[in-house]
Amino acid sequence: MFWNTILIVFSIFLCILLYRAYVVFTPDKAIFEPCSSSIDRHSLKFDQQHRIHPADSCKKILENNRRIINDDRIVPHIRSCSEPSPISPYGKDIYSYGILEETIRQTFEKERQPIIVVPGLMLGATDSRSYTNLSKNLYRFSPFVYRHDDLSRLHGDNERIRHNDMQRGLNFYFHLILNNQLENIPETILNSEL
């Protein structure tokens, strides 16, 4: 009986490690009845954080967990979940994306070494998710270059940015501000896109 309970707990734990949503598992009392009949209430809770892909939703993650667990005695539910941020518009006809692209080129492109600027996925939550009601044009970009050995220091001990990378980052923001001066922005863009 004890080993059956351990096996169930281990299985739940393994499922949690493999899937992506912030889910709390509360198994039914019947699972743990063989362990002890003197305890009236039995429950087991697991908290798990997941990274949600922009194509997923909190509901889809929960449904996927239910499908994988496939046990009616285990009831997953979402305690808290933030839906993924909407994908910001991009392309040559999007003024704000064009400004960002131009600024990236001014900062990173070297003579005879052109770069290609393409949209991508920024991992991790940023404060920009709080501003989705203000604009659809929210671009998450960091002008700082991190090397492999820098990653372990992010938000940890000995966090730092190399001097050259800090200069390049400041140069990026300087050009971003210059490129966004109001007198350079067409009136139609001011009224519609921004």
Low-confidence stretches: 14-40
Q: How do the SSEs run, as a string of H and E?
A: HEEHEHHHH
* Largest beta-sheet details: 3 strands, antiparallel
Question: Which CATH C-level class of the largest domain is it?
Answer: Mainly Alpha
User: Rg from C-alpha positions?
Assistant: 24 Å
Q: What assembly state would you assign to the polypeptide chains in this entry?
A: single chain
Q: Quickly give the structural class.
A: mainly alpha
Q: Estimate the strand proportion.
A: 5-15%
Instruction: Kindly report how far apart the N and C termini lie.
Output: 64 Å
Account of the 3D structure:
The chain is built from six helices and three strands. It is mainly alpha-helical. The chain has a three-stranded antiparallel β-sheet, covered by helices on one side. Helix 3 (95-108) packs antiparallel against helix 5. The chain is extended and about 65 Å long. The longest helix is centred in the first third of the chain and has 17 residues, at 2-18.
